[in-house]
Structure formats: structure tokens, C-alpha cells
Design brief:
Length: 344
């Protein structure tokens, strides 16, 4: 079972190498991202393994099919970079739906606390022996209302963490979960009600045509003045220019972003010696109340281990055992995993 592994980073290999022997996998690691220009590297492979910023559009899917690749394994949860409609009937597509919701939810809380208690400022100050407290006043989370958009695996863990801080929880989900709503301190509301009543808003839903720019100018206009926006889900959920305007207008009190709309050309790489072409991102990063991390919320030992194990299980199941458990099925509505027979 030959696997072409795209967009490899040094931290990916140890966990995949650990499981490769167990699953009888031969992995060729490529640093390049999968694109129309690099797809030929998959020649001779039964499966390709990709990450969030690889391009799996119609042209790439056709090229993979021509090369005889049968399985596309995403080593992440989101799959917005795959043309699922075009892949239907051509490639078996798998993802890792739940590797560690704790990793992402805990990073979300880390960003929130860093921001509202000004830890990022204090850290730099004290390294310079500046022990002044001027400008470091924060606020208590206890008693504040957090609005959680998307109450799946990560959203629920984040809700648990927030509950531990004594926060009130408003939730919005396209498919509200009864068991979650019945728990103490969580109420499902409309999106507008969530915007209007939340002190903090955290995004945990997938990026789809429907959710693209769900946080736009209109949404910011509905939010409380001083709201803190957390996005550890997908960049394009937020209209970044509208966010910048809302920050400049002092409507948004702070923003913590682990993802960014145009991150594909920047994140995961050291661009410190380059001139940043993206003025919106540069301006956002220059703001004292904006914290940006480069899509690192998933990056824990536990998550990397689980990602490798599940990805190789997915590939070997499909190729060696004709088992398609967990396949993303366009026909069956790909938001839920299809545990049915293969969809083609
Ligand atoms: P999940 O599939 O368990 O939950 C997603 C929730 O969003 C579901 O409850 C679903 O009903 C809801 N949803 C779907 N469409 C919606 C809509 N139009 N409006 C509101 N809610 C909607 O997914 P999970 O594991 O909780 O992950 C959430 C997102 O987090 C992923 O889609 C991915 O984009 C992002 N993510 C980010 C990572 C990072 O490192 N920053 C790592 C892993 C995931």
C-alpha cells in the first residue's frame, strides 16, 4: 500500500512512521503541497494523504484518478479544500473527524485568556524588566456570556471549558442537538440572538457555501460593542476586511484567530524574511487587540498520534479490507460521515 504524503512538515513524520509498519504502508513524504503542478508526484501511489491547504479541485481529482489513485485521505477534520461533488464516484475520501477536540478547544481558551488578560503584552514587558501594569486591565470570564456557533465535538468541549469558568452559554447550530441543549446553562438561540447577546463569540462550525463569511459586516453590526471574536475553525467563516473595519471602529474588543481566509500561501511557513503582501492580515496583526496563531490549534502530541492512526486505518481499511467506514459521502450529505457501503 503506497501512499504519497503531501505538504509534509517535520512534526508529521514521527507519528506516521510509528504506525506505517503496523499497517504495512510505504509512505513517500513530499514537502510540496498537492496542486495541479505537483499531482504527478502521486504516480505509483494507491492513496494520497493531504492537509488543510492542499488543493483538491476537479483538475487534481481527474489527474489522481488517471494515475490510479483510489483513496484521498485528509489528515484533518475540515474538507472544504476538496471538490466533493467532483470526487464522487472517482475517489474514496476520508478525513479524521475527531482526533482531539480537546486540542482545539483548549487552544481556543488559551487564546481567549491570553487576549483578555493581556498575557501577550505582559510576557514581552517582563522580559524587558518593564513591570508596569498600565494598560493590562482585563475582565473576568465568570458571569460573561459566550456564544458558540457549531456544537459538534469541538464546540461542546469548548462549552465544557467555559462552563468551568462560570460562563453562560448560548449556542447556534444548523442541527441543534437535544441532549446538549438540555444540559444546564446551555440554550440554543437564533444566530441573531447569539450575535446580540454574547460577550464572546467562538466559531466551531465547518466552512461550507452556507457558512462562508457568516461573520460579515451585518453580523458585526448586530454584535455587542466590545465583543471578543474567536475563530479556530476556518478562516473564511469571517470576512477579514469587515473584521478589520469593526476593530478600527472599536466595535470588536478583541479577535483571536488561529485561521485566516487567505492563510494557504502563508501559514505553516517561515515568512519572517519576506514582505507580507496581504495588507489586511498585516494590519490585523499590527492591532494590539488581535492575536493570530498559524493554524496550530490541532498541534498536540495526542492529536498527532490519533491523526496518524486514524488516517492509516482509513487507507488500509479501504484498500486492503474493502471497508469504507467513515467515508465522506457526497451523496449521503457529507456533513455527517457515511457509515454505509461505499458510495460508488
Ligand atoms: P463537528 O462536525 O463535530 O461539528 C461541527 C458542527 O457544526 C456540527 O454540530 C454541525 O451541525 C454544525 N454545523 C454545520 N453546518 C452549520 C451551519 N451552517 N451553521 C452552524 N453550525 C453548523 O466538527 P468539529 O470536530 O467540532 O470541528 C469543527 C471545525 O473545526 C471543523 O469544521 C474544522 O474546520 C475546524 N478545525 C480546526 C482545527 C484547527 O487546528 N484550527 C482542527 C480541527 C478542526
Amino acid at each position: 500500500m503506497n501512499i504519497a504524503f503531501f505538504d509534509t512538515k517535520p512534526y508529521d513524520r514521527p507519528s506516521f512512521d510509528r504506525y506505517a509498519e503496523k499497517f504495512g504502508a510505504k509512505i513517500k513524504y513530499f514537502e510540496s503541497r498537492l496542486t495541479e503542478d505537483t499531482v504527478s508526484l502521486a504516480k505509483g501511489s494507491d492513496a494520497v494523504c493531504v492537509f488543510v491547504n492542499d488543493t483538491v479541485n476537479a483538475a487534481v481529482i481527474d489527474a489522481l484518478t488517471e494515475l490510479g489513485v483510489k483513496v484521498l485521505a485528509l489528515r484533518c477534520a475540515g474538507f472544504n479544500n476538496v471538490d466533493m461533488a467532483h470526487a464522487h464516484g472517482k475517489l474514496h475520501v476520508f478525513r479524521v473527524p475527531a482526533y482531539s477536540p480537546y486540542a482545539v478547544a483548549e487552544h481556543t481558551m488559551a487564546l481567549l485568556l491570553t487576549s483578555i488578560r493581556r498575557i501577550h503584552k505582559a510576557y514581552i514587558r517582563s522580559r524587558d524588566f518593564n513591570f508596569s501594569l498600565q494598560g493590562l486591565t482585563g475582565f473576568d470570564l465568570h458571569g460573561k456570556t459566550v456564544g458558540i456557533i457549531g456544537t459538534g465535538r469541538i464546540g461542546r468541549v469548548f462549552a465544557d471549558i467555559c462552563r468551568g469558568f462560570g460562563m453562560k452559554i448560548l449556542a447556534y447550530d444548523k442541527f441543534p442537538a437535544k441532549d446538549f441543549a438540555d444540559e444546564d446553562s446551555v440554550s440554543y438561540v437564533t444566530l441573531d440572538e447569539l450575535f446580540e447577546n454574547s460577550d464572546i463569540i467562538s466559531l466551531h462550525c465547518p466552512l461550507t457555501d452556507e457558512t462562508h463569511h457568516m461573520i460579515d459586516r451585518d453580523a458585526f453590526d448586530k454584535m455587542k460593542k466590545g465583543v471578543v471574536l474567536l475563530n479556530t475553525s476556518r478562516g473564511a467563516l469571517v470576512d477579514a476586511e469587515a473584521l478589520l473595519e469593526a476593530i478600527k471602529a472599536r466595535r470588536v474588543g478583541a479577535a483571536c484567530l488561529d485561521v485566516y481566509e487567505e492563510e494557504a500561501d502563508l501559514f505553516f511557513e517561515d515568512n519572517s524574511g519576506h514582505i507580507l503582501e496581504d495588507d489586511t492580515l498585516a494590519r490585523l496583526i499590527s492591532m494590539p487587540n488581535v492575536i493570530v496563531t498559524s493554524h496550530q490549534a490541532f498541534l498536540t502530541e495526542e492529536a498527532l498520534d490519533a491523526i496518524a492512526a486514524t488516517t492509516l486505518e482509513n487507507i488500509s481499511g479501504a484498500l486492503l479490507k474493502n471497508s469504507f467506514q467513515g467515508e465522506l459521502c457526497y451523496r449521503c450529505g457529507f456533513v455527517q460521515d457515511c457509515n454505509d457501503k461505499p458510495c460508488f
